[in-house]
Write a sequence for this structure.
């Protein structure tokens, strides 16, 4: 089903919007959650919660990019669940990923207005990267892929991926500083 039609179903408060969304984007959302949680059960709960949150958000929201909208909801739910699940134990993969991520972002407690500015800055930065670097950066920090997985999928060495990520994080920090956002 076409994305605009799915959005129209949400706007009409038609329950089939959930089943159509799950049919078209369920596996995509499950993959996003699983990359963070490594649990099929928790990932399924995040996907179900995604449809519930989408139902509450549409209307008034009318997403321009439905998979990104669902993916963002799922990712945030999975990160919240991850934080809850690991309050007393640590997952080296996710801890490393989150540490790398937060080194680039100036402040975890930012206002909504600042969040909008930061989102625009991130989009501007991503637009300035070459395609390969942008894919590597997004696979690591959006889809939570390991450097090894990225290396295998792109036919590169894991060390080369680490170097690209390190340089890109440094470039991102400099970009934010140049734009007046201190890290």
């Amino acid at each position: 089903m076409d994305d605009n039609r799915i959005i129209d179903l949400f706007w009409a408060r038609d329950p089939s919007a959930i089943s159509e969304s799950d049919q078209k984007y369920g596996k995509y959302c499950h993959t996003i959650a699983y990359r963070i949680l490594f649990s099929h059960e928790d990932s399924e709960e995040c996907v179900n919660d995604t449809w519930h949150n989408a139902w509450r958000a549409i209307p008034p929201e009318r997403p321009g990019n439905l998979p990104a909208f669902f993916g963002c909801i799922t990712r945030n739910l999975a990160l919240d669940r991850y934080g809850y699940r690991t309050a007393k134990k640590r997952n080296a993969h996710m801890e490393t990923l989150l540490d790398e991520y937060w080194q680039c972002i100036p402040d975890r407690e930012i206002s909504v207005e600042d969040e909008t500015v930061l989102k625009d800055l991130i989009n501007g930065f991503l637009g300035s990267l070459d395609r390969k670097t942008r894919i590597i950066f997004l696979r690591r920090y959006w889809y939570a892929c390991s450097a090894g997985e990225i290396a295998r999928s792109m036919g590169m060495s894991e060390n080369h991926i680490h170097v690209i990520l390190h340089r890109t994080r440094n470039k991102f920090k400099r970009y934010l500083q140049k734009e007046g956002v201190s890290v």
